[in-house]
Please model this.
Amino acid sequence: MDESLKHHNPNPVIRANVISKLFFWWMNPLFKKGYARQLEVEDMYNVTVEDQSDRLGETLEKEWRKEMNKSKGGKRKPSLFKALFRMFGLEYILLGFVLFLEEATKVIQPLLLGGLIRYFTPGSSVTKMDSYLYAMGVSLCAIMLAISHHPYFFGVQRIGMKMRIACCSLLYRKSLRLSSEGLGKTTTGQIVNLMSNDVNRFDQAVIFLHFLWVGPIEAIAVLAILWRELGPSTLAGFAVLLLLVPVQGWMGKLFSKFRQKTAKFTDERVRLMNEIIAGMRVIKMYCWEKPFGDLVKKVRRSETRAVHKINNLRAIWEAIVTNGRHLCMFGTMLVLSFTVQHFQVSSLFMSIALFEKLRLCLLRFMQNGVRTAIDLQVSMTRFKTFLQLDELPESERRDDEEKIPVTECHVNIENISAKWDKEVEQLTLQKVSAKVESGKLLAVIGPVGAGKSSLLMAVLQELPLLEGNIDVKGRIAYVSQQPWVFSASLRQNITFGNKYERAKYDRILKACALNKDIDVMPHGDMTLIGDRGVSLSGGQRARVSLARALYMDAEVYLLDDPLSAVDASVGRHLFENVVQGILKNKPRILVTHQLQFLKEAEQILILKEGEMIGKGTFQELSKSGVDFSSLLKHDEEEEQPPDMYESHDPHQSHSRTRDLHSKSHEHINGHLHNLRQRVRVDSSCSHHSVTDSIQGSMMSLTSIGTEFEAETVQLPEEEERHEGTVGLSVYYKYFKAGAGFFKFLILVILCLAAQGAYILSDWWLAKWSNQEEARYAAQTRDSILRNEYLQRNETYNGTNITIPDVDTHFNVAVFSGIIGSVFLFGLLRALLFFKVAVDASQSLHNMMFGSILRSHIGFFDTNPVGRVLNRFSKDVGHMDDLLPITFFDFVQCSLLILGIVIVAGVVNPWVFIIVVPLIVLFVIVRRYYIRTSRHIKRLEGTTRSPVFSHLSATLQGLHTIRAFGVQEKFTEEFDCHQDLHTESWFLFLSSSRWLAVRLDWLCAMFVTAVSFCCVFAADSLNAGLVGLSMTYAMTLMGMFQWGVRQSAEVENQMISVERVLDYASLPSEAPLEAEEDKRPPSNWPQNGRISTNEACLRYSKDGPLVLKDLSFTIKAREKVGIVGRTGAGKSSLITMLFRLVEPNGRITIDNIDVQSIGLHDLRKHISIIPQDPVLFTGKLRRNLDPFSNHSDDALWNSLAEVQLKQAIEDLPHGLDSEVSEGGINFSVGQRQLICLARAILRNNKILMIDEATANVDPRTDALIQQTIREKFNSCTVLTIAHRLHTIMDSDRLLVLDEGKILEFDAPYLLLQKTGGMLRKLVEQTGKSETVHLVEIAKTAYEKSHEKVDSNVTDSIGNELNSASLHDVSAIVDENEEDRNVNADTVSNKELSHIDEGSNIGESSNIVEGSHTHKSNVGPEDSKPEGQPEDDKASHSGESEGVNEYTLTDIEDASNDNIEDGETGDAVELLGMGNKEKKEEIDDTEIVSKTKQEVDDNDETSKLIPGKESTDAK
Model:
């Protein structure tokens, strides 16, 4: 779907010749480009055919299916190893022979060295020419190693890469096929872990596996050579080596044990951090920073203890491995010195060189081979377990190729029963049946947790059926309850891989109200939206998800409550333009809490606890006794005509209009018809009459067309990146965090002492062997002279040859002491280094965590959770695990390299002549490499992230992907992401080898220089010194390039330290607690009076003001509702009162300035029920009462008050039941109720509610509202709500717009303001809902004022001049005859209207649990009465001019004015009134009907209370 992933840049390795491949010359152009400028994605070479993800994935899938087929008989289990071996086995075996040749060269080189050293021994038989040949042989071996080493490593690393790619592709394909049972046995985290960590075992294991057979062969060869040179004493050295092997195995087990413990603690810490970062707003508002901080520190301490144990083991093992050769030589020399009278220098240094090769092969490479083989076996077992999980049967997968005529499409659900978990007895769905045919709408309703979404999952074949059958004919499109948006452009999210068709696309954007949102995006519909759609609002995500479903143009649509995230007016727009518009001819199943739409459904299905408690049309269910009064509360609604905004079939629209019109004359739907007649009479006196009479309450949509402001799209901030190298200050801070000056000084001394002892041991061995060689030479010459005397029969008077006295015991003692110091200093150095590194990691983590915890909330708003969590997972993981061993290895290599160069130079100063230019070359090559390498490393990181983002997005939207049948498209895109990462990884491997080849050639030149310089200066050198310098020079091969690469790796990993340090110095909030003299009294606040004076708020220094000069006072125990459109500043008001962002101006609570006290002093005295339900993993008890401040009885009571007690009691473990990550094992509504119960436990004088019941059904909402009123009766309550009916009985309403207070008064009084904001918001809810809201406001006002002035009462009719509020006047008057209607003045005709309309009034009066509180607001001044009669006439004239409007004009105006988007928080009225269906009537009908109604009802209109005032206005 993402074409940007593809670029054309053919890989030059395809055309490279053998020499170019051997020396990696084909990389030269890239290095040249990388040195000149920063490399970009377009500069990377395309993957070769053999490395392509799709090819590798398909091949491995075929091989795996072969294994699965072979295992069906039960004879053997499927083997992933065999499948992989068939793909890569032959190539891997051939590379093993290359390694064998390289190791053979390593064994031959010391033999040639022995011959060279013998030239320097006294009385040697080796000639000058022979010495040159030996030197040449040693040099050629070095060159051979430089040539053969890198093709092997590059080859096996490439095979490992291909294995990883193939397995990732196979795992991804499998994840797309997992059944619900299979998904239940794994988690998203596990799948991500398999593809991010486990597959990396291939990259490591393939390098070392060959050493498992090469190592023993090499050991046997070395043993044979040394036996010939040193005799049986060789066995002593080998015995030491063999003893280290079981020690290695034992330590490996310990390492694995501690690693598992560490992983457990790390997982726990990262999970905890994930929840803390995601819920930081709640944590700050609930003052939970310190307890959660202690929790993290406790887990971190346990983790650090385990890390310390691991690193102590590492330190011991590093000391053993590094000094393994010395230990072997010590054992050999100990036996040799007491069993053999003489040993040769050449044999000794040959054995040193061979033991060094053997140490590397057995203790490094073989050990790594065993460890990685075990790790790989574990990972492959995990792969195999995952690959054998249940998947959807082939036959049940929907084919998206075949298109079925819409008229033949249907969904038939026959008596199905199902459950998600086989172990749970309770069924998820039980005996549910339904049938949806073409052009029909099935609405599914029910309380929270009823099984509505599960029903759709069953239709999608995601929920396995226990009985019954589901027959679906046609392709399915599915819109999930929680909108799924992936990281791509907005257009890509909608087109979803399909061909872009402009006309179709524009029509869908309009229907889904997305045009204005796209207009304000930086790059229009090509704007990249972040991971999970973080840059979009909830409403925007919902509409994008809906647009995607429409663009698929499927035959069957499953809509899982897509309207809950948008405002009521936008919801109505979507319902009429999408559900009843574009999709009107298709089968549709709509799960909804928006009960106002039920009447427009052909069939309604009511679920409760998985059972079908009702099915039928609205009328059938009403007659059958279904309790709609409790389910729908006040949802009796008027019919509305068909969609006016987009008529897809004009003929059908007109015929339907005539049909509706004829039915109205037959008095079908009784009171609805009469109500419509009266509305037209009333509205005929207004210039809005035509629009109102035809569109009904859709006038609210027209109004928002001109007033609606699209939401701004908040793009995620780019993560800050540091350019260039890591500064010395970072190293300084790192070591300062881990060690003080004294400890660091000791570490430096130990490092130097360990290296000094290392060199000293070899120098002493050279000195000792020289003494032995000199003694042996003197003894030999003395023996020769004696033999000559004897042969000449001369008297033996002695020779003049002095035989040196060699104290073997002294030499052994000194050598033993030096070897002991080597091991001791090496162990202490390693232990201290690792301790410093882990302490630094611990200290930096604590600094970063403390900084994050005290950071401003704006930091978390602008930085995604993943970005912050990355520092605590990946960066801290690097500091704990990788950085210590890498840094230690680098320090060790650096000291060894330095020691080698110094020893070679001191032994033969001529070497320095060669060394100087080699060092210059090295510096140039390294500098040239590092610049490009850094770019490649950055590209590797940036191309890796999309692979896991795509995987994560796929798993989140798995049901949607499968419902749409786009698995192949997603697999293709995954392969594209993998290929892009492969391009960068291939360059990473190639660039590493490019450097290594050149460094090894420099080393080969160094070895050549040293060997020939030794021959040139033969007169001034002895065998011991030559052996020492040559052995060291040969050690440099491999070690030098490894050390240089480790230096680059240290720098890369120090970036993690740099990133942690960045977060360790974030700006901090104000102090949590004020000084003693400034703290408020312990019983503060006693009353809960809130006052602000010119309070302003901006989220950043340069940002705009979001709250502007707010001055208001909320009285003690007053109940205040806060309303306004999206972006009006409602949530910002709570942010300001909690000081999550520091405001300007003055805010006082009970006369104490909140800015003068500590943050905790303020926040712990205010309760908050947040907008988003935040649950933490763990027991339910911990989620209610995280720190055990309340008894179980209190917890159960709080659950009972939010209607959750029964549901929790039904769980197996009650309060101790586990809450899954993010609370996903509870429905969204249940999560919100748990948060509400948690808030109820805090008994504060001030309560703030931020849209806390947005995701629950209306009945539960009503019960919650009742609970809030009862529990917080004596508190000051501030409520932000989408559902106006939850706040219309407030004492006062605070109406915000663009950060300013527009209105602040009793709701009933605000409704009387012509052109008032509240009044507009109420009008947008529809006529019947408007009636209901006015009734609530009026009742509440009367309760707070014993009697409403009759003039004020009647004035509502005078003031409300729109159709919907004329309706209010009439119906309120009808229902309150005893107070507001004079029966003597009402005609018989009017009375009959009242009788027929009374049902509406009755239904709209049902308000469950409504409880109003007293208001301290006085009545508003009555409006002026009396207007000139001329005004009436003029209005009448306006009515007669109604025929100037045609249907087309109205439709065009509607389409122009109804802009796409949400109108704001205040009007998402879930479960409120329905809007009247719009009738499409031609011009003549409108005119004639309007005139007739005016004539017929002329007298009646004069009798409607307040009518004269209305006309006058």
Q: What stands out?
A: Confidence is low (pLDDT under 50) at residues 395-401, 632-716, 1347-1513.
